[in-house]
Design goal:
With about 170 residues, the protein is an alpha+beta fold. It is built from four helices and eight strands, in the order αββαββαββββα.
């Protein structure tokens, strides 16, 4: 049993190290080491429900089937992704894209224009809240949070998680 816990800790440390490499690769060594994913309980009601996965520009197509080229053209360095659950019910995926420049994050953000059911929200450099998602950019980072089903209070819950991530960027 002790070996299993040790192996889990080692795996978590490796994932955290890979995430750090992805984040630092896009912004240089001047930026402090940051894990943009809030720990379970750090944002009220939200629990991190899976391990963080990372993809760089070379293997982004494994994660974004058919859409990777848009990100590569905009200068993506990599993406880190993790799953969350709100109060044990609402499931969401958080994707944190690190770009070579803030212009790359803006390019991707602007590629999805506002819709009739979206609204601008005060978050990062620019943000939009859609029915079941929040997208925002801050510096070289683009964050996309997507819920998988509609739920009462989902907009408030998604915004709380988004603010938790923004505070770590």
């Amino acid at each position: 049993m002790m070996k299993t816990e040790t192996i889990k800790r080692i795996k978590n440390a490796v994932v955290a190290a890979l995430l750090t490499v992805v984040v630092l690769a896009g912004v240089g060594c001047k930026k402090k080491i940051v894990d943009p994913f809030p720990a379970s309980g750090a944002v009220a009601g939200w629990e991190k429900s899976g391990k963080t996965q990372t993809f760089d520009a070379a293997n982004l197509y494994e994660y974004i089937d058919g859409g990777a080229e848009q990100y590569i053209s905009a200068g993506v360095v990599g993406v880190a992704t993790s799953d969350y659950k709100f109060q044990g019910n609402l499931e969401a995926t958080v994707d944190v894209y690190t770009m070579k420049s803030a212009d790359g994050a803006k390019t991707i953000f602007d590629a999805d224009p506002p819709t009739a059911d979206s609204k601008s929200v005060p978050l990062g450099d620019a943000a939009r809240l859609y029915g079941q998602s929040v997208v925002f950019r801050k510096g070289v980072t683009l964050v996309r949070i997507t819920a998988f089903e509609a739920a009462p209070g989902e907009s408030d819950a998604l915004m709380a998680l988004a603010h938790g991530i923004e505070g770590k960027l």
